[in-house]
Automatic annotation (TrEMBL):
Family in the record: Belongs to the battenin family.
Pfam family, one: CLN3
Subcellular location: Endomembrane system; Lysosome membrane
Transmembrane segments: 26-45, 262-285
Any one GO cellular component localisation term in the record: lysosomal membrane
The UniProt record lists the keyword Transmembrane: yes
Membrane topology type: Multi-pass membrane protein
Protein name: Battenin
């Protein structure tokens, strides 16, 4: 939801048909949000004794960390120090073994987000339309609304885990293929034990599609791109929420927290690498003779 609100706020503040603020003015207005967070944290929330704090004067003991706000000792199983000690008991070799078993979740998530953010950061800004085909929006405004629709798609799909659940085979195919349509609008459940996704057909990957369009500009108007970007967000959010749903259901509880934190790195690394790769791709397209 934060992504939708943030992207929509910035697009709305800077759109010339709405508030028409400059990017600098819009960012200054949006600074009220982190200021509000800081005020809430320091003045409105109650801080318990179990919360870890940074102290420059003295080191707090483990017993102080595990004391509740009522002055009572927490059970050892709930002590922050005891949780940390359990995590430290795992050797590097054991952790690497666990990480190896998590690659079946990490690789599809990494590839999905790498492909999507390669589109978002390297290709969408080259997908521009003039006023007659862009509904009166400028190229900069078009890019901002692309991001809004992407975040809407992510939000909808991440909120749909109770309606649509995908098996690991389909999650693994998400980086390569894109879902074309669902044959029904009823809540769809794909059996986790099934070896083949049901009621789904596949077509070309979004990345190749946007790459070709960035070079040859064959899409006729802004609305079609908006629909594809929304659909792209649905794919990314679906991959994310179903991956962590499988981890929560299938991974041993003793390593579940470690697994969740480790797999969460996959999409972040994919986004970071996509940012680096998108720069030479963007420049290469701009240097093409027919693109000029």
């Amino acid at each position: 939801m934060a992504g939708v609100v943030g992207a929509f706020s910035y697009a709305g503040l800077t759109d010339r048909h709405l508030l028409a603020l400059s990017p600098t003015e819009a960012m200054m207005v949006m600074l009220v949000v982190p200021a509000l967070f800081m005020f809430t944290f320091h003045f409105l929330l109650e801080h318990t004794d179990t919360m870890k704090r940074i102290s420059f004067s003295k080191k707090s003991s483990d017993s102080e960390k595990s004391t509740s706000e009522y002055g009572e000792k927490l059970p050892k199983s709930l002590s922050i120090a005891s949780v940390d000690s359990v995590e430290m008991e795992k050797t590097i070799a054991q952790r690497l073994t666990i990480v190896k078993s998590l690659l079946r979740y990490m690789i599809p998530l990494f590839l999905t987000y790498f492909a999507e953010y390669l589109i978002n950061q390297g290709l969408l800004e080259l997908t521009v339309f003039d006023c007659s085909h862009g509904y009166g929006t400028s190229p900069a405004s078009q890019y901002r609304w692309y991001q809004v629709l992407y975040q809407v798609g992510v939000f909808v799909s991440r909120s749909s885990i109770n309606c649509i659940q995908l098996n690991m085979l389909f999650i693994a195919l998400m980086p390569v293929f894109q879902v074309r349509k669902l044959d029904t609008i009823k809540p769809l459940y794909i059996d986790p034990m099934s070896s083949r996704p049901k009621q789904l057909t596949v077509k070309l990957i979004n990345t190749a599609f946007f790459l070709l369009n960035a070079i040859y500009a064959f899409l006729p108007n802004f609305g079609i791109v908006c629909a594809i970007v929304l659909y792209e967000g649905l794919i990314g959010g679906g991959s994310y929420v179903n991956t962590f749903h499988h981890i929560h259901k299938k991974v041993d509880p003793s390593i579940r927290e470690f697994a969740l934190s480790t797999v969460s790195l996959a999409d972040s690394i994919g986004i970071m690498l996509a940012a680096f790769v998108s720069i030479p791709i963007h420049n290469a397209i701009c240097e093409m003779q027919w693109y000029r």
